[in-house]
Amino acid sequence: MEIEYLREILEGVKNGSVEVDDALTELKKLPFEDLGFAKVDQHRNIRNGYPEVIYCQGKTVEQVKKIVERLMEKNNNIMATRADIKCFEAIKEITDDAVYYEEARIVVVKKRDISKVSKMIAVITAGTADIPVAEEAAVTCETMGNRVERVYDVGVAGIHRLFARLDVIREANVLVVVAGMEGALASVVS
Q1: Residue 122: phi, psi to the nearest 5?
Q2: Is 179 left (phi over 0), alpha (psi -120 to 50) or beta?
Q3: Torsional sign, CA 155, 160, 163, 164
């Protein structure tokens, strides 16, 4: 939980630099902020240290841009998933901190570093066709402060390729297995 934001408001009220009504206006936005077309969870960053993730698919570019603008006021880092290049370009208009991961279809607005954990997540794919979904998982994990190892194209049709990466699989604390056709890889990995 990001306590500093709340502490600043309360300290401001205490020392007189923030009016009580202004503090109430800020605190009213904590559960969510209603934009009419979306209810932006401004409290999520305070609860768990990560902002609300924007799922772009099905939203207009202008809706995505407006949500990003609102999140940028309160949150440091933003992640927009299932974003196309048009969403990225719109976000780039309002911040230079936007980075587009094309294969993952994710835009990340990184305002501050997140503490990295020492544990590792392995993202594993059966085939190369699974890489876009795997990259979505990998970039999400990395954005949230995790170390990620990618183990791609190791499906059961060439099981020797999987066995060659057992060191990474055994080291991992979490395994994300992406297998699009029949899904057999998940049971083999487990």
Answers
A1: -100, 125
A2: beta
A3: negative
pTM here is 0.79
Specify whether the CB–CB gap between 124 and 177 falls below 8 A.
yes
Residue with tokens 């940028």: 72
The CA distance from 104 to 84, in Å, is 10
Between CA 118 and CA 147 the distance in angstroms is 7
| Number of H-type helices and E-type strands within the chain | 9, 9
pLDDT in 10s for each residue of the chain, 190 residues: 367 777 888 999 999 999 998 888 877 767 677 788 888 887 777 677 777 799 999 999 999 999 999 888 776 689 999 999 999 999 999 999 999 999 999 999 987 778 888 899 999 999 999 999 999 999 999 998 899 999 999 998 889 999 999 999 999 999 999 997 788 999 999 8
Q: Partners of 125 in the beta sheet? A: 178
Closest CA to 33 of 75, 88, 93: 75
